[in-house]
Every structure is written in C-alpha cells, then in structure tokens.
Design the sequence.
C-alpha cells in the first residue's frame, strides 16, 4: 500500500484520486490551496451571473471524500524534497509521500504591461479571482477585457449580465480568429457586438493607468484612452509551475512528462494543465489547458499507479465553448486557415447564428473535422467517422445521424447537402433518418 | 465611498408597471373576498387585470432579450432564492390552499347563496354551466389562468427551443380544454364531470362508489368514460410510456405538471439534489403508491361486498385520510404552496402515485433516456441545478452515462440549459435493457 500525495484538487487531481480509490486501497492525500473541495472551474462565471451558487459548482457532495477515504487538506505547498519524499506546506506542516502527483493547473498570462499590478486589474482563473472581481466590479462604469479567447468572452458575458459596459481588446482581425475559420470568427464578432459589447479588433493594450493605486483607464496601441474601473486580463494561461521551477524536476513551459505521465524523477507524476507531454499524439498539443484532458490524464495515471500500465491517449481532438448565446463544438481537425490538401464545405443559417463546416482531405475525400456554431453534433458519431476515415460523401449521406439538437429542431441536412452541391456539382442522396436506433447500430458496427 | 450592489434580476419600467397591476389585482381580490365589489361585472375586469399583469410583465421581461438561456440573477432575486418575498408568497399560497380545502366558507361558499370571492365568479359559472360557482370552480379558473399566462411567459423565455414551446402549448391546451372547459360543459349537459386525461391513481376518486355510479347512470357517455379510464390505466398509458417515457404525461399533459412547468418554472432550481433527498423521495413516493392502491382496493371491496371494513379497517376512513393527507395536504398545500421554498415539483417527485407508476414503467421498459454527448461535459452543474426533479444529472453526464431515472419527467430543461450541448432526450428501442452503459 502506497501513500500517494496529490497536489492540486482540480479536475486532473480529483480524477486521479477517484480512480485510484476505485482501483486500490492506497492512502490518498489531496492538498490544494484554492479551496478545500473540488469545484468546476468551468462554471465560475455562472456564480457571478446568479445562475448557480457556489455549492452548485461542487460536483460531489462534501461527504463523498471522507466516505471514499480521500483526505483533503487546504493549504499551499511551498517546496518539495524529492529525496526525502516530503512536501513542505505553509504553517510548517509537512506531508510525507511514496508517490507524488503534481496537478497544479494554470495561471493567467501577464505580459509585463505598465500598470498591470494596479488595484482593479485581474485575471480570471481562480475562486479568489472571482471573489476579487465580485468586489471590484460593483457599480463600475466600464470594464475593459484584454485578450479575445474563451475566458475573455465569459468575462464579457458576466459583466454584461450586470449591465456593466464592456470593451474587449483583441489583437486579431476577428474574434478568436487564431482558432476559428474566418466565417465563424466573423459570426462571433458580430454576435458579440449584437450584445452591445464594444469589441475592438486589431487592437492591443499599451498600458494601464491608475489613480492612487486604482486603475482608471487604459491606453491602446492606437493611443486611445478608455476610462474604466476594472481591467480583466484574459490573454491565455500558462502552466502554474512556480512550486517546482528551478528544482531537479525537468520543466519547459510545463512539467515535462512522458506518455505514462511520469516526470524525470521516479514516483513523481504530473497531469492536467501543468503537464507538458514530450511525446505528443497526432493532432494534439503538448500542453492542453482543457477540462477533459485533465480528466483523461487523471484516469490514465490512476491506472498506471494501480499497476495497470496505460499510455495517455487523448484520442481525436474535440472541444466546445459558448459565446453568449452561440454554442460551439469542434470534432477533429479544423484549422483556422484551411489550405490544400484540405478543403471544407460550409453552411450558414440565413439568420447568421448557426453554421456547419465539414473539413475534408481533397486528395482522398476523407473527412477530417466538424466545426459547429449554434448546432449540436453527436460526439461518438463524428469521432467514428473521423477514425474510420469515412469519405465526405458517406458522411453527408448520413449526416442526420450526427445531429444532436433537441427534438423538433430543424433538420439542416438539406442546407449542407446544397452547399456540397454548389461546391462540387455532386448530388448526395440522404441515406439515414438519424433515428436513435440507426445511430446505435452504427456505433455498434 | 458608497457602493450600491447592482445585480440582476433587473426590472424595467414597464415590468414595474405590470407588477403594480398585479398588486392591484390581488388587492381587488382581497376586497372582493370581503364583499367589496365595484360593479356586477368585476370578474371580467379582475381576470383581465390578472392576465395583463402576468403576460405584460413577461412580455417586457423577454422582449429585448436575445434568444438563449436566460437565468441571470435567479439566485439573487428574493422571490427565487428563498428570500423574504419567497416566504411571503409561500405563506400566502399556503393560506389560500388551507381555506380552499378546509374552510371554503371563508372564501364565501354558501349553499344559500355565495358571497365574497366565490360569488365573484358566480356569473362566469352560470355562463359556463348554469350553476353557481363552487370553491373548486374558482380554483379551476385561477389554475387555468396561471397555466395560460405563465405558460405564455415560459414560451417567451424559451423562444429559441421548439421542444419547450411545443410541450408548453400542449399543457396549456390540455388544461384549458380537458381539465377546465370540457368537464364544465359536460356538467351543463348533465353528464358526469370528467377530466379524461386525469387517470387513476392521480385521480384517486375514480373508483369511488359515487363516481362509478355516476358513470353507470349516465348512459353511453358514462360507460365510455369508465372504459376509457380503465384503458388509460392499463393500455394507453403504459404504451405511451414505452414509446416516449413518462414525459408524455408529466410534461405534456398533466395539470399538476402543467402548473409546475409554467407558474412553477421560476422555482425549479430550488429542488433538493442531495442523496438524502433521493432516499426520502423513493421512500415517500412508493409508500404513497402503496397507500393509494390499498385505499382503492378497500373502496372497491366495500363497493362490491357492502362490507364497511377490510381487515378491520374502515375503508371509508382510509379513503378519507387519503383525501386529507395526500389529496389535499400534500398535493395542494405543500405541493403548490411551497413552490417558492422547495421547488416546483415537490408533489410530482415525493408524492404523486401516478408519477410512481409511470416512473417504474420508464425505468424498466421504456425507449426513453437522456443521452450524454461523449466527452463534452465540463461538469458545470447547470443541468443538475435546473432539474426540477432534483436529479443530479451532472453525476451521470460527467461519466458519459445516459440518464434513465424513474423520476425524470422529461421536461428537457437540463438539455436546454447545458452550455456544451451534452444532453438529448431520445427514444430508441434496440437497447432498452442496456440504456445506461458507463463509459469512462
Ligand atoms: C473561467 C474558465 C473557464 C473555463 N472553461 C473551460 C471550458 O469550457 N472547457 C474546457 O475544456 N476548459 C475550460 N477551462 C479550462 C479548465 O478549467 C482547466 O483546463 C482545468 O480546470 C484544469 O484542471 P487542473 O486539474 O489541471 O488544474 P486546476 O483546476 O487549476 O487545479 C490546480 C489546483 O492546484 C492548486 N495548486 C497549485 N499550486 C499549488 C501549491 N503549490 N500548493 C497547493 N495547491 C496548489 C491550485 O490552487 C488549483 O486549485 C476554463 C478555465 C477557466 C479559468
Ligand atoms: S433530468 Fe432533465 S428532463 Fe429529466 S426532469 Fe430533470 S431536467 Fe427534466
Ligand atoms: S450542464 Fe452540460 S456541461 Fe454542465 S454538467 Fe450538465 S451536462 Fe455537463
């Protein structure tokens, strides 16, 4: 029986702990600085908007942890002695371990902007950030958000829900155009503006100005002054590895791990946002700061720690997000610039808030990815098509099997088949009604 | 420096005006119940004001909102977060239900001529069925008005979601025609009062001697009601549940469900999601189902044999206590009176024997399930929070497991509020006995 210490109780650490408990009788100790109980970081925004209370963010009842013999401790780990196998906490506490799991998460990027340490300037990552934003955004006249990614849009929606005017500064020429293809990016920019957000494209932050230590304006690279009482910095995140930097643990941007999530030090592992894979599988990145990667890494590592060796295999890329009212899903390979040998067919709803894009390889007509705005697709079906190298024609003929919108929603298949016809002159005859039985049969086959 | 806390829900000017109309309506109703009326036609005016205040409020709430889920400030507003307003509303509703069930004379019910609130609706009752109003008629009027007006509000709130719109139109339709107008018309035609969609055991008086006799004595129509009632219980309802899950009834047809989904919608998130509540739910709902079966068996036994007692217990007493504790206290006083404190489906979840039966069918042999979309769940918790039945939907979704729960009424709100498109209500026959495979 080992004593496993997990630092960080985010989705990565918690998944590891849960699966380790399922598989073994090991002693499990989880220590984390931010909160005693695991919560869904992805839902922080909903507390601010009043959709949920803090306790609704906790996916497990508080009694769960004791019942499953997972010891929780709230506290900050200051240093680790890898030889003695001891972690040193604040207040002179120490924790001994046989095996150490680092699940330290991320922290907000800052780029050394003048004024970034003023009161009223904050990233949006942690519970403490949320509390700070709650306190600082009370009754303010304008908030400026720097950086146009997935967290920036959430922050904008939060302020919007409280009728706080928002300006977003985005370096790119459309919102999130570093990831989204041009049509989709333009759709999102338009949608953001429809929600009365002052979206500044091709615009960067130059400096943040303050008065008595409190922010009161920002200056853009076009020398424009925008008065504001709050500045949200959402220019991406980076692995939070302050704890281990400069130790014998190998790090680059994140903590370097092999496909077994093992670091260079025996019995020390890293998972989740803080881990950087040295051996990256196709279509994936070395660092992926997303929810399900943390969950999958936690599960994989737990298998390894219980003697059931398994290499980390995240499978085919997928993700999802929401931009105000527009839901976004992606499956497989969908680059922001689609160039040969790839091509895509694109259908957009006349109202301009729904779209479907299918990316395929022109050389062999194999499907490579799906990009959806305002339309829900079925993960397993898309995944199966991609992994089977199905042809674009076959996918189109059975496209209804992928639809995952609620019952009675419109059937977009004719739109997308039309788009294919426009592009190639080829007519596709639909071959599936998309009924659940057909889908289940397909998935079983 | 003075900091004002500025949080949703925000009310605009026109919403305030309609709120004012609502307060005026309630004041007029209170005046009417102490016999202060202004004209003979006050009821028209009051119904008009009642409908205007709710629909006007709703119209101005959602008019400028974009299409999408709008739960901003649900946990901030006093009415929707068990604040002072919630307690006051619960108290008011509970008081109304107590009067309605046990002291209708204070509402003005009087065999020798109604007064007060009930007299106010005498003209409407005369118009519909040529009889003076009863407390149940007045209740029916308000019940139907609430489902229609708050149904309109719900339609606006979910203007982007066709599933939500269709099922709401359906409950509005069934309430207006099947629960309200048709039975009243039937009385006018000297046929037995019968709400066709209201089946046993929710309709616990179906097998009462007086009801059976009244069916039997009204010729062909009466026999039709009797046979249809039995077919509903044993054939129609299990078949529909096989095809669509219990939602065909609980969220598309039922009147209790109808009120919960419309007037109760602002309170759906108040349902208790703890494991403890789930345990209590299973204990209570199956006990009450058992109670209703035993009670009905007793009543039928007495009807058939003329014996007043079954195993030494008076069946009439049994029937009476069922009516008191379950039919009135639970389904009415607690079920609706406590909307603002316990959520909108307390009766449906903890009490309704109909829901229990349909739930068993749904769990065991229905094509229905809520599918989870692969690995897309981010464990945010919106689904669990807004499940009116207190189902911890997230617990299943984050494991990639389908949701097949006896209590799920298929309202589809979990799927509507999910920000990642994870949930879908579906029917499929090929895996009925394997609908909950656990993926990693
Ligand atoms: C606002 C927001 C929205 C998001 N939305 C999405 C989304 O929709 N979809 C998606 O896929 N991803 C989303 N993400 C990203 C996702 O939340 C993260 O990828 C995920 O939470 C990372 O999990 P983790 O377990 O690796 O780390 P974390 O959740 O960051 O947990 C790490 C924990 O370790 C603790 N810790 C660090 N150092 C120490 C120390 N020295 N001592 C003690 N404790 C320490 C930290 O306090 C922290 O609690 C979002 C992120 C944010 C901030
Ligand atoms: S699980 Fe979903 S569909 Fe079922 S009752 Fe709850 S919210 Fe409604
Ligand atoms: S609302 Fe959707 S994403 Fe959030 S926990 Fe539920 S299923 Fe998962």
Sequence:
């Amino acid at each position: 029986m080992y004593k496993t210490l997990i630092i960080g109780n985010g989705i990565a650490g918690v998944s590891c702990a849960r699966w380790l408990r399922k598989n073994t009788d090991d002693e499990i100790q989880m220590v984390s600085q931010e909160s005693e109980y695991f919560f869904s970081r992805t839902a922080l925004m909903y507390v601010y908007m009043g959709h949920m209370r803090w306790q609704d963010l906790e996916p497990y009842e508080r009694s769960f942890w004791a019942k499953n013999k997972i010891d929780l401790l709230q506290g900050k780990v200051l240093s680790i002695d890898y030889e003695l196998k001891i972690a040193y906490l604040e207040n002179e506490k120490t924790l001994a371990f046989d095996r150490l799991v680092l699940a330290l998460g991320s922290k907000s990027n800052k780029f050394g902007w003048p004024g970034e340490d003023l009161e009223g300037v904050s990233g949006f990552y942690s519970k403490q950030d949320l509390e700070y934003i709650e306190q600082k955004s009370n009754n303010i006249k304008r908030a400026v958000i720097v950086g146009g990614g997935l967290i920036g849009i959430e922050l904008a929606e939060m302020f919007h829900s409280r009728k706080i005017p928002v300006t977003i500064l985005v370096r790119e020429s459309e919102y999130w155009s570093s990831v989204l293809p041009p049509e989709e990016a333009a759709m999102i920019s338009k949608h953001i503006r429809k929600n009365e957000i002052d979206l500044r494209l091709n615009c960067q932050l130059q400096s943040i100005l303050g008065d008595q230590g409190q922010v009161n304006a920002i200056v853009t690279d076009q020398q424009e002054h925008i008065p504001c009482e709050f500045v949200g910095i959402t220019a991406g995140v980076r692995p939070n590895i302050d704890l281990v930097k400069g130790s014998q643990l190998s790090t680059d941007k994140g903590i370097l791990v092999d496909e077994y999530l093992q670091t260079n030090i025996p019995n020390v592992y890293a998972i989740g946002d803080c881990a950087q894979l040295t051996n990256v599988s196709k279509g994936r990145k070395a660092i992926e700061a997303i929810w399900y990667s943390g969950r999958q890494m936690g599960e994989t590592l737990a298998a390894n720690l219980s003697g059931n060796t398994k290499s980390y295999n995240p499978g085919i890329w997928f993700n999802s997000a929401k931009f105000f009212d527009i839901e976004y899903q992606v499956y497989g390979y969908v680059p922001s610039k689609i160039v040969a040998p790839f091509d895509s067919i694109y259908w957009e709803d006349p109202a301009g808030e729904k779209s479907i894009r299918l990316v395929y390889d022109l050389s062999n007509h194999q499907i490579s990815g799906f990009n959806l705005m305002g339309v829900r697709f079925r993960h397993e079906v898309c995944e199966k098509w991609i992994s089977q190298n199905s042809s674009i024609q076959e996918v189109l003929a059975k496209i209804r099997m992928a639809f995952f919108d609620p019952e009675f929603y419109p059937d977009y298949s004719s739109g997308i088949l039309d788009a294919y016809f426009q592009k190639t002159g080829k007519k596709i005859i639909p071959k599936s009604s998309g009924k659940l039985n057909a889908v289940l049969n397909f998935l079983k086959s | 420096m003075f900091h004002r806390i500025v949080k949703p829900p925000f009310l605009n000017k026109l919403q305030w005006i309609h709120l004012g109309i609502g307060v005026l309506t309630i004041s007029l109703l209170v005046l009417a119940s102490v016999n202060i009326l202004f004209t003979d036609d006050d009821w028209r005016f009051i119904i008009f004001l009642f409908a205007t205040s709710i629909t006007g409020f709703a119209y101005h709430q959602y008019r400028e909102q974009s299409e999408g889920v709008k739960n901003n400030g649900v946990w901030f507003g006093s009415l929707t977060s068990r604040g002072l307003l919630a307690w006051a509303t619960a108290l008011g509703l509970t008081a109304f239900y107590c009067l309605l069930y046990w002291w209708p004379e204070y509402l003005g019910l009087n065999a020798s001529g109604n007064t007060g609130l009930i007299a106010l609706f005498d003209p409407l009752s005369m118009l519909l069925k040529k009889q003076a109003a009863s407390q149940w008629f007045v209740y029916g009027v308000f019940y139907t008005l609430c489902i229609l007006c708050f149904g309109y509000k719900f339609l606006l709130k979910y203007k982007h979601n066709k599933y939500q719109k269709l099922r709401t139109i359906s409950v509005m339709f069934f309430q207006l025609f099947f629960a309200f107008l048709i039975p009243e018309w039937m009385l006018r035609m000297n046929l037995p009062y019968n709400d066709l969609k209201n089946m046993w055991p929710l309709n616990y008086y179906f097998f009462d001697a007086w009801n059976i006799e009244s069916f039997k004595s009204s010729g062909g129509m009466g026999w039709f009601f009797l046979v249809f009632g039995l077919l509903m219980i044993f054939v129609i309802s299990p078949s529909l549940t096989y095809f669509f899950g219990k939602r065909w009834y609980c969220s598309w047809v039922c009147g209790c469900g109808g009120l919960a989904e419309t007037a109760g919608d602002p309170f759906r998130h108040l349902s208790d999601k703890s494991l403890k509540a789930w345990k209590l739910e299973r204990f209570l709902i199956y006990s009450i189902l058992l109670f209703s079966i035993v009670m009905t068996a007793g009543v039928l036994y007495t009807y058939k044999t003329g014996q007043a007692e079954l195993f030494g217990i008076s069946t009439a007493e049994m029937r009476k206590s069922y009516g008191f504790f379950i039919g009135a206290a639970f389904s009415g006083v607690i079920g609706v009176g406590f909307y603002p404190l316990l959520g909108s489906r307390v009766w449906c979840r903890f009490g309704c024997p109909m829901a229990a039966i349909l739930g068993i069918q749904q769990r065991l042999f229905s094509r229905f399930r809520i599918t989870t979309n692969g690995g897309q769940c981010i464990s945010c918790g919106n689904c669990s929070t807004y499940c009116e039945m207190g189902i911890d939907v997230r617990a299943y979704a984050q494991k990639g497991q389908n949701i097949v729960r006896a209590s799920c009424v298929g309202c589809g709100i979990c799927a509507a509020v999910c920000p990642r498109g994870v949930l879908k209500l579906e029917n499929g026959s090929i895996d009925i006995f394997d609908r909950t495979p656990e993926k990693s």
